């Protein structure tokens, strides 16, 4: 593995210095999956689902020439009145983590020139889309953490 691939791999697997998905959702109270914090038009689950949808779109963008991306912005968020249960919450988190692993594998694949423009993706590179996904995830996971704090939803004793 070349040095730049190692750095990229670390960004996708160590999630340092940013909060990981697991850390953000650790011990999250199920009764608040669908809670909308004050002055926020979406719930905690909506925020995770937004991360999942956008990340999946970015992953497919550089792999599937037939991809039709969702309409912006509404296609990147669940319906405002959509809710979930414990199984849906777990599915959303599992899908985020699965797609991160898929992106990491694609970035480490020696057959993929991650810096080359992808013609069907408006000449954007794989690495550009990967880092856009990481940046987007970090932004919204930070938002998730702050909203948890505002709503006093972090465990009292937290490492």
Task: Write structural notes for this entry.
- This protein has helices spanning 3-13, 21-25, 44-61, 86-108, 126-150; strands at residues 117-118, 124-125.
- The chain has 159 residues and is mostly helical.
- It is globular, with a radius of gyration of 17 Å.
- The protein has 5 helices and 2 strands; from the N terminus they run ααααββα.
- The longest helix is centred in the C-terminal third of the chain and has 25 residues, at 126-150.
- β1 (117-118) and β2 (124-125) form a beta hairpin.
- It has a single domain, classed as dinb family like domain (Four Helix Bundle (Hemerythrin (Met), subunit A)), CATH 1.20.120.
- The protein has a two-stranded antiparallel ribbon with strand order 1-2.
- The model has no long low-confidence stretch (mean pLDDT 91).
Keywords:
159 residues, Four Helix Bundle (Hemerythrin (Met), subunit A), 2 strands
Distance between the ends = 33 Å
Question: H/E series, N to C?
Answer: HHHHEEH
Q: Main sheet, how many strands, which sense, barrel?
A: 2 strands, antiparallel
Molecular shape: globular
- What is the CATH C-level name? Mainly Alpha
Set out the fold topology.
Blueprint: H1 3-13, H2 21-25, H3 44-61, H4 86-108, E1 117-118, E2 124-125, H5 126-150
Helix pairs in contact: 1-4, 3-4, 3-5
Brief characterization of the structure:
By secondary structure, the protein is mainly α. The chain has helices at residues 3-13, 21-25, 44-61, 86-108, 126-150; strands at 117-118, 124-125. The protein is 52% helix and 3% strand.
């Amino acid at each position: 593995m070349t040095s730049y691939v190692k750095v990229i791999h670390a960004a996708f697997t160590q999630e340092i210095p940013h909060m990981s998905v697991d850390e953000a959702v650790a011990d999250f109270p199920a009764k608040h999956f669908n809670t909308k914090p004050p002055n926020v038009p979406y719930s905690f689950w909506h925020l995770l689902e937004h991360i999942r949808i956008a990340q999946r779109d970015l992953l497919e963008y550089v792999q599937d020439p037939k991809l039709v991306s969702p309409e912006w912005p509404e296609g990147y968020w669940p319906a405002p009145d959509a809710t979930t249960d414990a199984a849906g919450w777990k599915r959303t988190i599992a899908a985020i983590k699965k797609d991160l692993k898929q992106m990491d594998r694609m970035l480490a694949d020696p057959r993929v020139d991650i810096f080359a423009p992808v013609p069907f993706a408006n000449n954007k590179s794989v690495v550009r889309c990967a880092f856009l996904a990481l940046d987007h995830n970090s932004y919204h996971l930070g938002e998730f953490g702050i909203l948890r704090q505002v709503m006093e939803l972090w465990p009292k004793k937290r490492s």
